[in-house]
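Box 3.1. Reading complex inputs
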Amino acid sequence: MGNEPLLRFRLDRHSGLPVYRQLVDQVRQALRLGILHPGDQLPSVRDVVEQVAINPNTVHRAYRELEHQGLVEGQAGRGTFVRRSLPGLTKQHDALQRRLTAWLASAHAAGLDDEAIEAMVARAKESAEREERS
Amino acid sequence: MGNEPLLRFRLDRHSGLPVYRQLVDQVRQALRLGILHPGDQLPSVRDVVEQVAINPNTVHRAYRELEHQGLVEGQAGRGTFVRRSLPGLTKQHDALQRRLTAWLASAHAAGLDDEAIEAMVARAKESAEREERS
DNA sequence: CCAACTGTACTAAACATATAGTACAATAGG
DNA sequence: CCTATTGTACTATATGTTTAGTACAGTTGG
């Protein structure tokens, strides 16, 4: 059946991050953001292969890693399903999400590119760390 | 001489990013943030080795990559020096930096951990992309 | 039962990354 | 000139990542 997948993977070939790691991260993010819930089915190994043009072994490695973390469970013949969720973002955090999105829009409007924004985020995190040590 | 280095590298062993890539990124960030300027000297290969306990070859690879990008120049017997800068953050962007730092503080106060914050940033970026395509 | 789907297992090879160890050449300071 | 510093070059090795290819076993729907 032409069932729409809950999750679409996107690879960044320039990020330097291993592919299997990008897949793991994106599933964890989907759990955080409430896109995936316990019982939901992940895209099949072969679907992912078609979608992002990588080797089945790499997808399997990512799913195996997620299984090892207790987040999903693979069932031969059926698919891979979410087992538990992660401390997620509730409606209480909607305001935060909106503020951040607004900030990003301002940054783009100011002509900052992705790397410049990354630099700002990194600096902000450092400031936060310094704050915590006092 | 006990000269303080302009730049201190910090490695994240769990990030999945190759070490040499982390070094490259941090130098580029320092250029963006105005921490490094043309003519400035990078920490010597052997200094970095002592600081973060990695192999000299790895440091050299990072510096070679930066040289290939035209950002620095290695001079045998003297050191490695910044050649040009990158489109940086001027005082016009101070307001943006402050807003972001404030946002991060709010997020921490709301009990969000690093991964949850990463998820929020990722979602915000996706929203921004969707916006651009209209 | 059969066909089509699922996850899983395995070997082999290629490539990327990081290490260890040694050595050499250029520069600066005494 | 001598010495300590710098970047650079090279081989070899280990580990991690990805690919190719083949095969098998469980599940579902007709």
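In summary: Residues 18-20, 54-55, 57-58, 61, 75-79 of chain B lie near DNA strand C (CB under 10 Å from a C1').
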